[in-house]
Amino acid sequence: MNMRSQIERYEKLGLRESLPKIYRYPIACREIGFILREAYIQFPKNLQSIIFHDTLAAFRLLPQIQTQSAVSAVHFLLQSVEAALPKQKRNMAVKEFKLAMVAHKRRSKPQHQEEKDSFQLPHDVLVHIFSFLDMQSLVSVGLVCWSWNLAANDNHLWELQYVALYGNAAKQQLINRVEDRNKRHLQDLTDTKSITDWKEAVNRAYTGALAKKLTTNRGYCVNCRTVVWLNNSKCPNVHSGMISEVQEIKPVTPFQVVEYVLDDSLSLTSSSDSDSDSEGGPVSRLWALPKM
Questions:
Q1: Is the distance from CB of 91 to CB of 85 less than 8 angstroms?
Q2: At what angle do helices 2-12 and 45-61 cross, to 10 degrees?
Q3: Which residue, 232, 238, 199, is CA-closest to 217?
Q4: Which of 52, 106, 154, 275 could link 208 by a cystine bridge, Cβ 3.0 to 4.6 Å?
């Protein structure tokens, strides 16, 4: 029974389905790597076979994922392969890795030329595209180039982020507070910059346990009782007709993912739920990113 449940829990991680997605590929590779290192020999043979084939799939998909983070993650996965797999499987996996790296290098050369010849999308088109991103991705695309940075700092995008995190009620409360302050200082209410500076509003509220949740793409949903991929720190699954709130998500580390697959236990009372952040942590790094 435990053997079967281990397979089910591993399948629920959705690693195989996430590998083809460029923004999830590095995370999936690292989780597979941690599972190989920490627990591979403890799993039954059928689950070992599934993990092995997911490892081969990760190597084979590398040429399609033209990012430096993907290359870094796949090297970590290779180290885990060399440490955990028996000789025959290890040799097969190393061979796949070498073939993937050759294909990756060949494919990256013409792509660099395409980037030089690419045209610039209009600002309003970029803003529309960026409106589908979560907060962490929105910050990341702002580092690509000047025009993307300008679009990623569009005030409406950060208003959407504020609503996604805290809801329309919190948004209205913030507007009311700023309007009251403006009235007390006899400011002209046609100057709405202080009301609509939504990126700064998110920045001020971006602290403690919530901040830690927002700097990860993985979490444990207390409703699903499983590790899920997050969308703006929320579980994408619907529970009783409602999406999980931020408070119903617990951030998890790769080691906790291994714990979950092994015996369905998670150390969720760790410091990751603390309301304070250490200086230089993920929050500080994220908000230290300057405008271009």
A1: no
A2: 20
A3: 232
A4: 275
Locus of tokens 């990756």: 104
- Does residue 54 fall inside a structural domain? yes
Burial class for 76, CB neighbours closer than 10 Å (0-12, 13-18, 19+): middle
Rounded alpha-carbon distances, angstroms, from residue 232 to 21, 65, 155, 243, 261: 17, 23, 18, 12, 24
Those residues with Cβ within 8 angstroms of residue 150's Cβ, 6 or more apart along the chain or in another chain: 123, 292
Beta bridge partners of 251: 219
C-alpha atoms less than 13 angstroms from C-alpha of 132 in its C-beta half-sphere: 4
Which tokens is 42 given? 């403890």
Domain presence at residue 133: no
**Phi/psi of residue 228, each to 5°?**
-130, 160
* pLDDT tens digits, 186-199: 544 444 444 557 77
Q: What is the DSSP letter of 118?
A: P
Same domain, 245 and 199: no
Phi-psi region of 167 (alpha: psi -120 to 50; beta: other; left: phi over 0): left
Mean pLDDT of 75-101: 96
Task: Report how far residue 179's alpha carbon sits from residue 283's, in angstroms, rounded to the nearest whole number.
Answer: 29
Provide the number of structural domains found in the chain: 3
Residue range 16-26, pLDDT digits in tens:
999 998 888 99
DSSP, collapsed to helix, strand or coil, labels residue 229 as strand
Q: Are 175 and 195 in contact (CB under 8 A)?
A: yes
Taking the C-alpha atoms of residue 216 and residue 233, their distance in angstroms, rounded to an integer, is: 8
Contact between residue 220 and residue 269 where contact means Cβ atoms under 8 Å apart: no
The two tokens of residue 237 are: 């699954």
Task: Give percent of the chain with pLDDT exceeding 70.
Answer: 66
Say how many C-beta atoms besides its own lie within 10 A of residue 174's C-beta: 17
| CA–CA distance, 59 with 99 (Å, rounded to integer) | 8
Range of the domain at 267: 209-279
